[in-house]
UniProtKB/TrEMBL annotation:
InterPro entries: Cell_div_ZipA, ZipA_FtsZ-bd_C, ZipA_FtsZ-bd_C_sf. Gene3D superfamilies: ZipA, C-terminal FtsZ-binding domain. Residues 56-85 are annotated as: Disordered. Essential cell division protein that stabilizes the FtsZ protofilaments by cross-linking them and that serves as a cytoplasmic membrane anchor for the Z ring. Also required for the recruitment to the septal ring of downstream cell division proteins. Residues 89-219 form the ZipA C-terminal FtsZ-binding domain. This is Cell division protein ZipA. The gene is zipA. It is a single-pass type I membrane protein.
Amino acid sequence: MSDVWLLRLAILVAGIVLFGAIIYFGQPRKGGQGRRRAGEGGERVEPRISDQFAHGIGVRDDTEQPELDLGDEAPNASSDLGRRPDDAFDKIVTIYIAAHAGEKLRGPDIVVAAEKAGLTYGHMNVFHRLVEGHPERGPVFSVANIMKPGSFDMASIQELETPAIAFFLTLPAPVSALDAWEMMQPTAERMADLLGGVVLDESRNALSRQRVQGIRDELRAYDRQREAPPLKPARW
């Protein structure tokens, strides 16, 4: 049984892809983004968000720290808009919009900003950018709350406050990886402007031109790798 098969089996749970990015950013990153870790014995490790916004731009040290478990689907997640046709994935790229120190992003403002930015509320009670005219292809990228359980419950949206929201691009996407990024970055910048927040990279630093170029280079390489023809078996 191959490691790839085991990896895909472990993630064949409804909705896990949408919250995978949020779970991953609870651990410090070294190098690239978004790969699932395995614990001793091969069991799935479930890291939690704990203190990524407790220092710096996100929230003050005395603010309650966000924590998110990997669990069941968000309640009332009845819409299929934004559901991936295939739960298998091999890379996630994540950026954030964070409130300035001592401030919060408010639920009603997030909803208005998402609508203005062309996002659709749907599967898992989060927002998605869909392929125009082809919503069945799944999300180009999605936007979730970093606070548990990660969703935006419209029944209590007036009371919702959060230190940050997460944008995550799960690959493969319904468009090329680079095209998906070129849609996600300006959307995040537009929403940050509307919300009065700041765009952060996967390490919770301000998204710089250098990091943007690095992400583009990574995604170009990803696209080239997927387009490359399979190697022919050697003849002996």
